[in-house]
Each structure stands twice: as structure tokens, then as C-alpha cells.
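Incident review: delayed structure delivery

Summary: a single-chain prediction request sat in the queue longer than the usual turnaround. Root cause was a stuck worker, restarted by the on-call engineer. No data loss occurred. The affected request and its eventual output are reproduced below so the record is complete for anyone auditing the incident later.

Affected input:
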Amino acid sequence: MGFYDFDKKLDRENTSSVKWSFIKEHTGVEDAIPLWVADMDFETVPEIIEKLAERAQHGIYGYTARTENYYRELIKWYGRRQGFHIRKEWITHSSGVVNAIYNIIYALSEEGEGVIIQPPVYHPFARAIALTGRKVLNNPLIIKNGRYEIDFEGLEIILKEGKARLLLLCNPHNPVGRVFTYEELKQLGELSIRYGVTVISDEIHSDFIYKDQTFVPFASVSEELEQNSIICTAPSKTFNLAGLSTSNIIIPNKNLRGRYDNYCELRGVKSFNIFGAIASETAYQYGEPWLEELLVYLEENKDYAISYLQTYLPEVKVIKPEGTYFLWVDFSELEYSKEELEEFLIKEARIWLNQGYIFGKEGEGFARINLACRKDTLKEALGRLQQAIKKAA
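Output delivered after worker restart:
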């Protein structure tokens, strides 16, 4: 029995929660179980709650700055957990990783230039590229023996065309759960250097790594890659703080950092949330024991879900994740169209998942399940899925 209670039932329906408060409005099914958006159903680190309450009691919420301890704890966290040794001057800010990606694209590329993504991948990537007037260049991942891999041959073909300016890497990969190896990152990095493409590495899920896996920050592979990358991180996923809008963008290259900061200042997006800053500092200082227990709980949820599906729903194929708190599930044997699958899962199974097609056409027939929920919730959802598929057979 751990110190923290991840089975604690909390009322989220009356908190304006995107995940829990608007289920019927979005799905039409009042009792659908939401296992979609990357939002955990767990109370955060107790010290964070205490620090925020203490600061809220002060009553004045004026302009503020990050403390030296903020930087110190952030640097210690990544050095201790990932072997990534960050310097204070490399750290800049964004209210969120997605916002940072928009600003990076604007700052480091021109309209009409290409940005490479590796679908099926986090859907805001393609949207950010399109809305900023850049060109989406798809380098789809390939499946080998039930495991996704980078298509390096296809990547080099794109790079040789000379239209790409940036590459958006997602590691750990959302939604497929891959944690790319040192060798894969080195090969990708060498190609980026050879063809003059800067890598934006979204590493927001890097604290969620399963047993027998090792996370390698892209910038830690070599000094050359360090100078050709922007690392996007945040405490929001790790500690369930997304509503506090605080991310840390790591840019070792002084020139790239200057261009990013100048663009953010030009757009008036340099301010940050005082409560987010306090929560982030506290999380990195006191949150490690909480995270260690959470990782055990998530591993148990993952193992339970995979075992359940393999035992009771063998027609539903699972891509075993190496990181993140998602399960990428292949429903293609059910032979539904993407629209039919979405309707079946919501109307018949009464579970609200992220549909695979939103991550690119390579995701059609798949769905993403959020495992960061109470065990009882997960068991109920999988039971509903089994009953619905059995009934439809």
C-alpha cells in the first residue's frame, strides 16, 4: 500500500473539467466514460496544493518572476531523472507546449516552408503547421512486428527535396507510446544536421517511462544536436497541472533562443501564470515520491488493460506502449469505417476515446485510451467495451 491514494474518487463533474463536465454536450451520451484527453484523474502532489492555497491566501496576485529556486529545481530534476544537464540561460517559457510550437514555427520558418511530422501523431502538430501557413510534410511511422519505427529511408527522401525547415519530433510518441532509442535519435539527428533542419522535440511525456525502458532527451545525444534542437517540456502532464498553463522550453542555441524570445515578445506572450510557476517549482522540489508511486499505478493499469483485451477481446489488437499513459488500440478487425467506429464506441460501448483518425489517416481504425484513471473506472470501461462488441457480433 503506497502513501498516495490514486484510487480516491473525486468529483470532477462540477469543476468545469473539459474531460468530465461536458460529456453529454460532446457525446450525446450522459453516462459515457471519458478516457480521451491527456488529463489524469488523480489529485496532484499534496505540497503543491498546500503551496497554492498558501499563496492564494495572500490576496495580491500581481506581476511576478520566477525564483532562483524555480530554475534550480527544474535543472536538478532533469539532471537527476534523465541525465540531461540544462543551463539556466537555456530555459525560456511558454504557457503551453502547443503554444510554444506555434511560436517556434513562426520564429524559425517562413510561410510556405515545410515542417516534417511523423504520423499517426499528436493532432495539434498538423493543425499548427497548416494555420501558420507552412506545409505539412508527412513521414509516417512504420509498424514492424507490432512496434512502430521511424521510416528513415522515407525521411531522407523528404529531406533531399530541400523544402523542410523544421522537424517536429514527439518522444515519447503520442499516441503510439514509442520511446525512441539513442541510436534512432542519433540517426535522426545526423540527418537533420546534414540537411539543415532544426528539430523541435516535444518531450512533455518524458516522465512516463515504463519498466525496462530508458528515455533519452534529444539534446543530450551530442553537442551538435544540442545546438540544433528545441526541447519542449512542462510539469502539466507529469503532475496534472495543465490548467495552470506553465511550460519550460529548453533552447541551448543562443541564436535560436533569441529568435524565439524576440518573436514571443513581439506577440506579447512573455508573461506567465503566478500559480503555475509556484506549482512547477514545488512539483520538481517535492513531487518525486508521488511520481514514483504514480508510475507503479499506471504500469498496473497498462498491464491490466493489455491482459484484459488479449484475453476477452482478441480481435482488438494492442500496441504495447513503452512510455506515456496512453494505450493505442487497433479496432480494424471490427471492419467499421472511422465514423462507424466512433459512433459504436460512444453510443454502444458508452466510452469516450480519442479516435485514431484525428492523429492522421494512418490512425484510422485505431483509438487512444487514457490509462491515467482509477482502476475501477478502467475496469468499467473495458467491461462496457467487451459487452458492446459481444452484442454486435
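Verification: Residues 92 and 261 are 8 Å apart (CA to CA).
Action items: add queue-age alerting; document worker restart procedure.
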